[in-house]
């Protein structure tokens, strides 16, 4: 039995890389996928690819740094697509360089996307997901840099 079949997945950072790959996998499991990213063209291309292959997907531009934008993502998803069974907090950025040379604005961007973005996703979606009788999952992705520091990646680690 496939517990994901017929469910809705919301994937942040779905415009490329791991997020796009997870969207392809979710569609292969029979899920409808809501692709969220700041790059409208990228998520439109992923949506077109998934739908051309017979999948069901919609794209929503969303900046996970903004709690109101994440709230709007949830409202649109529940209104237009359905109850969320899988939330994948995947959006993330890297910052290379020495920590002491990193501008505060770059540091804040990493924190706002990689940490606060996950917080906004969980805080917004999880209460709605838990209010149903269905099993639901939240996947919070992170970089290997969160457990293993690498040279010139201190701002990300």
TrEMBL record:
Gene3D superfamilies: NAD(P)-binding Rossmann-like Domain. GO terms for molecular function: oxidoreductase activity. SUPFAM superfamilies: NAD(P)-binding Rossmann-fold domains. Keywords: Oxidoreductase. This is Oxidoreductase. It comes from Mycobacterium montefiorense. InterPro entries: NAD(P)-bd_dom_sf, SDR_fam. Belongs to the short-chain dehydrogenases/reductases (SDR) family. The keyword Oxidoreductase applies. The keyword Oxidoreductase applies.
């Amino acid at each position: 039995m496939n517990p994901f079949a017929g469910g809705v997945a919301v994937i942040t950072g779905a415009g490329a890389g791991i997020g796009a790959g997870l969207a392809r996998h979710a569609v292969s499991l029979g899920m409808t996928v809501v692709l969220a990213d700041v790059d409208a063209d990228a998520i439109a291309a992923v949506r077109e690819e998934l739908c051309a292959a017979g999948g069901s997907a919609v794209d929503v531009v969303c900046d996970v740094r903004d709690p109101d934008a994440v709230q709007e993502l949830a409202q649109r998803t529940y209104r237009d697509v359905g109850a969320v069974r899988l939330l994948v907090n995947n959006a993330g950025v890297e910052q290379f360089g020495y920590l002491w040379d990193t501008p505060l604005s770059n540091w804040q961007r990493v924190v706002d996307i990689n940490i606060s973005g996950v917080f906004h996703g969980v805080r917004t979606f999880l209460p709605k997901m838990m209010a149903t009788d269905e099993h639901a999952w939240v996947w919070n992705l992170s970089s290997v840099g969160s457990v293993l520091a690498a040279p010139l990646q201190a701002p990300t680690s």
